[in-house]
Amino acid sequence: MTSYLTHPAARPEDEKPYRKGYRLPAALRAEIAAAHRTRPVLTAGCAALDVLIAVLVAVAGGGVLVCMSLWAALPLALVGCLLVARQLRALENLTHEASHYNWARHHRRWNDILGFLLVGLPTGGRLAAYRESHLRHHGRFGTSDDPDRRRYAELDLEGLRRSSAAAFTASVLARAVRYQLGWVREVGSDLSVTAAMLVWSAVFVALPAWLGAGLPGAVAAEVLWLVSVFVVLPVLRLVAEADEHVYSDSDTVFDATISNVGLVQRVLVHPHADGYHTVHHLWPGIPHHSLRRTHTMLMERDPEYARRIRIRRGVLETPRAAEATPAR
């Protein structure tokens, strides 16, 4: 079977991206313009804090795990991997911000340098390759040239079973390996990127653990980190990506985009306001620290936005128009 990920389908010359499908009221234009202001120190601080928490969890976890029996250590190790992966997911969302120059719009070189040092190295991501892929998602939204839509088709992401937690977990895990392989190809990861991430983790994870808990602690911390990167993080990323769109019943960007605003989604799956995805697709230049505020403003002041936006407040929910979704 031909893979949508490695062999994009030929597209007709007249294939058009989805139209936006939403018009901002003139009275709100000033608020939207103001929301585009970047705050480099805030974003860099968020990234540094995410890295610090991830490293502390891995280093402390490695030191604790070597003092426990295998059966006692296993549940704690799983929790540690989830916490580290959550922080790495937050860093990936800041890579996404850097791809739109939302760290420092008027200092693009620093935007990319900070993104590489604070986000790219810990996660093993390549900003340039991700930017090229992601901007095609925005510019060619809904077409056969949209890499996200190809992944949706290849993996049937709209077909994730959300009837129960068990069914959802099973359908996510059934797609996880193919998803990760396709994602790595899509963003152009290579051995040099992986090697740089491994060196980074040896310096900032294994070395501090070794100083505090000796060689066994260093090995345990590094294993915890690598399992988080290569096993748990791709699952969180898959869930996050599958949350964001429903292409099959829509023909505009507004109607095909889902905002995931429940507590679990905001804390675990879509940190740094990544769940306010409708606002992001309408105005990709609005940085993470203004997305939720912009969404709230539109819900309060634009009846059309509040009536039509599609929202999911729980991981297992079917997205529905906000007017049919009880407020929480």
State the main characteristics:
328 residues; 13 helices; mainly alpha; globular
Characterise this structure:
It is a single chain. The chain is an all-alpha fold and 328 residues long. The protein contains 13 helices and three strands, in the order αααααααααβααααββ. It has a three-stranded mixed sheet. α2 crosses α8, α3 crosses α8 and α7 crosses α8. The longest helix has 53 residues.
Question: What is the residue-averaged pLDDT?
Answer: 90
Specify the biggest β-sheet. 3 strands, mixed
Q: Roughly what fraction of the amino acids lie in strands?
A: under 5%
Helix-strand pattern, N to C? HHHHHHHHHEHHHHEE
Distance separating the two termini? 45 Å
Shape descriptor reads: globular
Structural class: mainly alpha
Estimated helix fraction? 55-70%
| Strand arrangement in the largest pleated sheet | 1-2-3
> Total number of β-strand segments?
3
Low-confidence stretches: 1-11, 324-328
Radius of gyration: 20 Å
Oligomer category:
single chain
Count of DSSP helices?
13
